Prior knowledge:
Chain A is an alpha+beta fold. Chain A has 13 helices and 15 strands.
Amino acid sequence: MTRVISISPTIRHEGKSGLVLDVDEKGIVTRGDWVGLSPVRGIERFCTGKKMHQVPKIASRTCGICPVPHVLAGVGAMEASIGCEVPKDALLLRRIIHSASRLSVHALHAFMVLPDLYYPGTDTRINPYSPEPRARAIADRIQRIREIGQDCVQIAGGEAIHPGNPRVGGMYRNISPQAKTKLFDLAKEGNVLAHEHLDCMLALIRDFSRREWVEIGGARVPVPKNLGYHNQGYLATDPLYGTSSLEEHPSFDLARYAEVSPEHWYRGPGEVTYGDPTYPGGGTLPEGTAFDPAREMCPAVPIYDGQPVEVGAAARLRRFSNFDEKGTIGQLVARQMECIPAVTELEDCIDRLNPAGAVRAGTLPPGDGKPGWAANEAPRGTLVHITRVKDRKVRFFKMIVPTSWNMPTAGLALAGSPWQLAEFVIRGYDPCISCASH
Amino acid sequence: MGAELGKYKSCVSARSTDKEVLKYAQDGGIVTSLFGYALDTGIIDGAIVAANKEFYAKYPSKCIQDSSNLDMIEPWRPIPAIVNTKAELLAAAGTKYNISPNIALLKEATRSFGLDKIGIVGTPCQMQAVRKAQLYPVGMRDVGASIALAVGIFCMENFPYQSILQLVEDHAAMKLESVKKMEIGKGKFWVYGKRGQVVQLPLKVTHKYEQPGCHVCLDYVANLGDISTGSVGSPDGWSTIFVRSKIGEAVWAKAIADGVFETQPIEKVKPGLELVTKLANEKITKNKNTLEARKTFGVGKALRNPYI
Lengths: 438, 308
């Protein structure tokens, strides 16, 4: 007999979301719907008519964890539409803040999943807030990595959260030689810590993948080997930075993309038939609670070749580095593995940066309404901003956000897992619901 | 009254022992020498100062002035800049009697300039801004902890650029380009020309050119600086120094030990603290009255009072 369980809100990720799960008698999910509940702010709509310089700054406010990709995709899209080439050193500064922010966001996600993991070889969960030395060693390192990442974004981008330095046509300012030295020191320190962090996280994730069961709400829940598997395919445009329609051979095909309303992928109205008050954090929703995922879902559903796809660290490594591990464990491993290329890229770009170089293109064309788009490989996957700029004003603005791609995919990936692990599965996608709704 | 000079640990009359600094300095070369010393000893790794057009021409990347057209920048308009060397400090020395928004660089100093330990010089209101940014950092992430040395300068009032233009070019009948130094002292506004001309204007004529915002200011001797300095109270070529905070005390003691300054006890010099106190009292009393008048400015309506 099928029971319907709903977990709402879900925790330890950005934004507000809920899960509606059809569950068989063994507690295995047969159909999952992951519903984004962060209210739509309507950024695409209210940016229409605003100046091209303002829109990336507004888009940045979509999300405070990944403002960097939004601001970079925003300025990139404006530049693609007006047809403006960015000076080399400006691009390097952008790559610096991009890789530094990826480093710190991935480290933050490690913090989010730590409470799901166990100390290797034990049945003790990790509490990153505990004063115990084992937990502190992990948590302090993560904090320092994040500090380094944010300091780098702050120096090169003007501000760690909502960087003010990027502008249409390049950057406002180059950095001083003194700042370059400081960046380099930070990156060197980050490199060492990122390697230690990777070793530590891989050990924890590998240990988790060998476990037969985990304890949730006092009960032993079996961990399936195919946790979070799906057949939806993967999308990535670049291992590190991104692409745009200015490029000769852009690695993203806008023609294969479409956006549909949630009705196409989400279930209709119904009500909860089973409530579990022992589920951690106050229980699941009580029996009789009405839901309507197709209508409650705030983000729209982007599809590629007619299907939802997975984007993110695992998709990037799969496409560009022959990574072949699937499912939630694969995502967790891939995400932590990406910290190293991020920090290497950071060092490399700092090295190549000329502090005396020009960072602003000359006169900016006002734009003639030609469509332009820029994809940025945000920490959570492919972020695309599409725009049409005419007379320096934005006539059309559209954001395709990583978590929007991932939400329907993750819903499909829930099937086959015990319902208690559903939150762990969606956490594997490092969701950012504010981004998805925008 | 009695609190008009703020809290301080010691007060002396001093001047730099560096002859080169004295050549460029307004008075005793305190700010230039102090920042030079702090840069040399690693107390600060950069300082925010008020530079000028010539400085900008020489070191454009040190300023946030956003104009590549030098002709657009007027002579004697201060441009906030970040300096890292003695040569840059000397290029920025000297008082400019109009508004220099030094705090505009405060956050940027910790960003693209990459400073960890900032030195900043400013008028009393700018010291207030620095302290407020430290205690209530609204949009000032990581700024507070980066401020290593705040040097305040005495300030009676300031002028908008247009006022200086009018005072110098109309009242003193001198082209701004030909001015070597300006000074307010001994009840006069002095303008020294590069060819040796000296013009003095009675302060009475300058009053209507003052920046209106200065009329509610209740701070004369930069009460919130780590160290405050100004010309009043000391003889020509010397400065009066208040050493106020622990940071100020430590830096000052080291600088004295290293022979950066020569000092005289303030009690030994003329006119001494008595004049400073008198002028501070005058400023505060006058401006308190302005504040008071704002309460009943309209009929049944007041103008805002930022102090309450």
